[in-house]
Amino acid sequence: MMYTNCNGYLVPNLSLPNTPEVKLNRYGRMRLEYLEQNEPTLCDRMMLEGTLLPNCRKMGQEAHQMVDKTLRELMRKTPMPNRKTNPLGWAQLCNSLKQQAEEAVLPMLYEI
């Protein structure tokens, strides 16, 4: 490890690895926010290793896929009102099912 002499103190030359810009979806941002607020030491370590954003991206994608799969299963099993004759009832049920699917997946984002 290289050091720089700064006013009599040796300061390590630390830099983050060059990684491509990572786009996080909603669940990836939620994971990142959780780590920053509740696990700052782990968050800092992962950031220095260059694994923080790729990990959050991967978990976000997995959570999104699980929500989609769970939502499709719930919609298949639940009798849906006719979209043309009862659009508000249909939208209300879809929103309720999506919330149920998300509630099933969200604990995954808060695991260490």
Summary?
Helices cover 64% and strands 7% of the residues.
Task: Report on the architecture of this protein.
It is a single chain. The protein is 64% helix and 7% strand. The chain is built from 4 helices and 2 strands, in the order ββαααα. Strands 1-2 form a two-stranded antiparallel ribbon. A hairpin with a 2-residue loop joins strand 1 (3-6) and strand 2. The protein is rod-shaped, with a radius of gyration of 21 Å. It starts with a strand and ends with a helix. The model has no long low-confidence stretch (mean pLDDT 91).
Notable characteristics:
64% helix, 112 residues, mainly alpha, single chain, two-stranded antiparallel ribbon
- Derived from helix and strand composition plus strand pairing, the structural class reads mainly alpha
Biggest beta sheet attributes: 2 strands, antiparallel
- Provide the spatial order of strands within the biggest beta sheet: 1-2
* Topology, number of strands: 2
End-to-end separation: 30 Å
Query: What value does the Rg take, in angstroms?
Result: 21 Å
Q: Please trace the helix and strand order, writing H or E for each element.
A: EEHHHH
Q: Report the total helices.
A: 4
Strand residues, percent: 5-15%
Question: What is the typical, i.e. mean, pLDDT?
Answer: 91
Contiguous uncertain segments of 5+ residues: none
- What percent of residues adopt helix (DSSP H or I)? 55-70%
Outline type: rod-shaped
